[in-house]
Specification:
The complex is a heterodimer of chains A (266) and B (117). Chain A has 266 residues and is α/β, with parallel strands linked by helices. Chain A has helices spanning 17-30, 47-50, 61-65, 71-74, 100-111, 127-133, 147-162, 177-181, 188-195, 208-215, 226-238, 255-258, and strands spanning 4-9, 35-39, 76-77, 84-87, 116-120, 138-143, 169-175, 199-204. Classes of the chains: A alpha/beta (266), B alpha+beta (117).
Chain lengths: 266, 117
């Protein structure tokens, strides 16, 4: 199977890109995929801490680009999933340290050996975002059912289109179906209607996400968690599997109608 | 605004339906973001559109509406431009008309139309 480079982006900050990247990483590793996660948020390193790998950083992405380390040296191997690696972000403030060409070069080197490369994009639309999407075969757009998140997501769709990047698939994160039922939160259908892109997954709001970040154990490792189950489904869809929408949260009773909002394989 | 408040507060007086308000506001914001023109430039564009049309037909300037719409996932610039026509021909004095005149006339139902020489 050819390597797939997937960038996770959003526009707005705080909607769940890093959580999504970490969880999809573990979920794909559990499906026996070999993969590398790259934290592309120069200056604001956080994929490492969410994954519990913060104490094992020696070299980072910028060290590799500037020739202080080989790619292999910067790759931190996960203890439980030995086919999963992380390349952490640099903590430097110099955003120009990484270019789109650098990102393409690094992912090209990784393609030979891995099934997936997941790139955690920074928030925003400037260089960090452009770096992160440069090598992408697929883009996952994370948003919340909330006005400013959806507005920013729309902007990202426009930018990707303008730069001839692949049309993203949507992850609707932090859905609260009781609020949707009461008419106090936009439904998945509302959001998809406005953004006009296909859904790849809906992740319900789950307090367990905070606890799991605290512990550095992504929530997908918690068998009982609905959010975890949703991430597992998204991972399976990423591999090309046709997974019907069915996870525990029915998004406010829209179960049947949601099936058609989901895109097929990419 | 009254409308929004009514929808928001519904029958029971409890806050209801803020999601539909969010959707309406987002639809407005998204289409304006997508066209990416500042308000002044939008107004300038509308004036120029009307100026071009006015070269060909007489516009009822007070009733013109040019607006952004989102319909079936399409981003649309929609114009409603009522125009004014000249008065229609007068058919009432048909008997007084000379056959050789070229004023158009509506033939009577039981008369065959005259051939034109």
């Amino acid at each position: 199977m050819a390597c797939k480079v997937v960038t996770i982006t959003s526009g707005k900050g705080g909607v769940g890109k890093t959580t999504t990247t970490a969880n999809l990483g573990i979920a794909l590793a559990s499906l026996d995929k070999k993969l590398v996660l790259i934290d592309a948020d120069i200056g604001l390193r956080n994929l490492d801490i969410v994954m519990g790998l913060e104490s094992r950083i020696v070299y980072d992405l910028v060290d590799v680009i500037e020739g202080r380390a080989k790619l292999r040296q910067a790759m931190i191997r996960h203890k439980q999933f030995t086919n999963l690696f992380l390349i952490p972000a640099a903590q430097s403030r110099d955003k120009t340290a990484v270019s789109p060409a650098d990102m393409i070069q690094i992912t090209d080197e990784l393609r030979a050996e891995f099934d997936f490369v997941l790139i955690d994009s920074p928030a925003g639309i400037e260089r960090g975002f452009r770096n992160a999407v440069a090598p992408a075969d697929e883009v996952l757009l994370v948003t919340n059912p909330e006005v400013s998140a959806v507005r920013d997501a729309d902007r990202i769709i426009g930018l990707l289109e303008a730069e001839k990047k692949p049309t993203p698939r949507l992850i609707l994160n932090r859905l609260k179906s009781d609020m949707v039922r009461k008419g106090e939160m936009m439904s998945p259908e509302d959001v998809v209607d406005m953004l006009s892109i296909k859904l790849i997954g809906i992740v319900p709001e789950d307090d367990g996400v905070v606890s799991s970040s605290n512990a550095g154990q992504p929530i997908v490792l918690n068998e009982a968690s609905k959010a975890g189950a949703a991430y597992k489904e998204i991972a399976r869809r990423l591999t090309g599997e046709d997974v019907p929408f069915r996870s525990g949260d029915d998004g406010g009773g829209l179960l049947k109608r949601l099936g058609r909002l989901f895109g097929g394989k990419s | 605004m009254q409308d929004f408040l009514l929808r928001l507060f519904g029958r029971g007086g409890a806050a209801k339906g803020s999601a539909s308000l969010a959707k309406e506001r987002l639809q407005f914001v998204l289409i304006h973001d997508r066209i990416n023109l500042p308000p002044e430039t939008m107004e300038q564009m509308k004036r120029e559109i009307l100026a071009v049309i006015a070269k060909y037909i007489t516009i009822d300037g007070d009733s013109v509406d040019i607006a952004l719409q989102n319909r079936d996932r399409l981003n649309l610039l929609v114009a409603e431009i009522p125009f004014i026509t000249a008065a229609p021909p007068d058919f009432t004095d048909i008997d007084d008309v000379d056959e050789n005149d070229d004023i158009p006339r509506r033939p009577a139902a039981d008369v065959k139309p005259k051939s034109i020489d």
